[in-house]
Amino acid sequence: MATIAQTSMRGNPATVTTTTSTASDTLAYSANSGQVLLMRNTTAGSLNVTIDGSGATTINPPGYGGTIDISTGKVIAVGANATVVVPLDQIKAFLVGTIAITHPGSAGDIVYSLLG
Question: Which of 47, 52, 53, 54 has the alpha carbon at shortest distance from 104?
């Protein structure tokens, strides 16, 4: 398990720190801080990355009229040889508790960068 290191964007220029995926990785989320997670797929096939906070269970969004189970995490498709940018504040309901990031590929298939 690797902890995805954050690169501070306060420097000019900033050297981006990358973390190569393992079987299960974690990150520290700071709410409303503008953190962005970049996920780069190094393979020739698409991979689904799951971001799952241990305390994320259900949400009751306004106008929905009920609850939605989010306990299995947020699944984000990362295309072959593609990079996906995820503004973490936009998926904060999934980022409660210890945050695990997993994918079905092999270690090293995804390279992460956490910017904040």
Answer: 47
Q: pTM for this structure? A: 0.92
Sheet strands (E) in the chain: 2-3, 6-7, 19-20, 25-27, 36-41, 47-53, 58-59, 68-69, 74-78, 83-87, 99-102, 110-115
Residue 70: CATH number of its domain: 2.60.290
Number of domains in the chain: 1
Residues 6+ apart with CB under 8 A from 60: 66, 67, 68
Q: 87: Cβ–Cβ under 8 A, 6 or more apart, which residues? A: 34, 35, 36
For residue 80, what are the domain limits?
2-115
pLDDT digits (tens, 9 = 90+) for 45-98: 999 999 999 999 999 999 999 999 999 999 999 999 999 999 999 999 999 999
